[in-house]
Design brief:
The structure holds two protein chains of two kinds. Chain A is α+β, with helices and mostly antiparallel strands. Chain A is about 20% helix and about 25% strand. In chain A, the strands form two sheets. Chain A has a six-stranded antiparallel sheet. A three-stranded mixed sheet of chain A has the order 2-3-9, with no helix packed on it. In chain A, strand 6 and strand 7 form a beta hairpin. The radius of gyration of chain A is 15 Å and the shape is globular. In chain B, a hairpin with a 2-residue loop joins strand 5 and strand 6. Chain B is built from four helices and seven strands; from the N terminus they run ββααβββββαα. By secondary structure, chain B is an alpha+beta fold. In chain B, helix 1 runs antiparallel to helix 2. The longest helix of chain B has 14 residues. Classes of the chains: A alpha+beta, B alpha+beta.
Chain lengths: ~150, ~150
């Protein structure tokens, strides 16, 4: 079932919200660019930088995500959809795990991505480290860990 | 080319105690060429490089980051790793056996600094403007070779 439109402010911007139509078990996918891989001496391998889990700035700024259930309800393959351009990897949260950490998970459809969502909340360094613990690879980048 | 114009001055006396020439040579640290090349790559990223709508790193932030690195890093510092932010910002990171340091350059003179000490398990976060002494100390600490560190601690 399509999601209800999100709430907007007087400037037409989507305001932070927790969307009722996004269920706790729904996949919340965050694309990961190889630009965000860094080498860690401790593990002896590549891992994802905390910079990959920063929100955009501004009063309504959240972390961009893709809503897996909505992609698949449209008859598309979520792995193919989020792997465009083809060199991107991605990680997957559940909406419930993000909400349990105090984040809001909302719907923010864009002209070029109708399944675009946002995650709003605090993104301090310790919280970014926690986010890395909450997610698993959805489309792995070979040789890299989370 | 991204450059801060930093340089060193050499005195080359032709005769003892009489300086005849002042040569200006570019500073050269082991990490510097790679950092400049990486910054040049990041300012050339295409819009949407992250799969969403991210911008390339701004030239102002890249130039500031290089200036900051020149005051933070010594000759023997572990090489920095540089990753882009989503809105022209960037992050400089060190992840060694001793610990982790991340400097998020949000804008020139607007840096959020974080470090994790692997030995004590302590985390610190602070905002920096134009005094980067703390960041230099952090980078020096995570750059220390484990053997040298162990000897100093003994």
């Amino acid at each position: 079932m399509p999601l209800q439109p999100p709430p907007h402010d007087h400037n037409g911007e989507v305001v932070p919200h927790d969307h009722d139509g996004i269920n706790v078990a729904d996949g919340i996918i965050r694309r990961i660019s190889p630009q965000h891989l860094i080498y860690d001496e401790k593990s002896g391998g590549m891992k994802i930088s905390s910079a990959a889990f920063n929100p955009s700035s501004g009063p309504n700024g959240g972390m961009s995500v893709d809503l897996q259930a909505q992609i698949e309800e449209a008859g598309l393959s979520a792995t193919q959809y989020v792997t465009s351009p083809p060199w991107l990897g991605s990680v997957r949260f559940t909406a419930g795990s993000l909400r349990a950490e105090g984040y809001q998970v909302g719907f923010d459809p864009l002209a070029d991505n109708p399944y675009h969502g946002e995650v709003w909340g605090l993104f301090t360094k310790s919280r970014q480290r926690r986010l890395k613990q909450l997610c698993i690879w959805f489309v792995p980048i070979p040789g890299a860990s989370i | 080319m991204i450059s801060t114009g930093a340089s060193k001055v050499s005195y080359l006396p032709e005769r003892p105690n009489i300086a005849r020439r002042l040569l200006i040579e570019p500073n050269s640290f082991a990490w510097q060429d790679a950092a400049v090349a990486r910054l040049e790559e990041l300012v050339r990223l295409e819009k949407g490089w992250d799969g969403y709508s991210a911008s390339p790193v701004s030239l102002a932030n890249a130039a500031f980051a290089l200036q900051m690195l020149e005051v933070i890093c010594g000759v023997d510092s572990a090489p920095p790793q540089i990753v882009p932010g989503f809105e022209g910002d960037l992050q400089i990171e060190w992840h060694t056996l001793k610990g982790d340091v991340e400097l998020h350059v949000k804008a020139p003179n607007d840096v959020h600094a974080w470090r994790f000490d692997c030995e004590g398990g302590a985390e610190e976060e602070l905002d920096l403007r134009n005094d980067f002494l703390v960041a230099a100390q952090w980078v020096n600490e995570v750059s220390e070779h484990p053997i040298a560190f162990a000897a100093a601690a003994a």
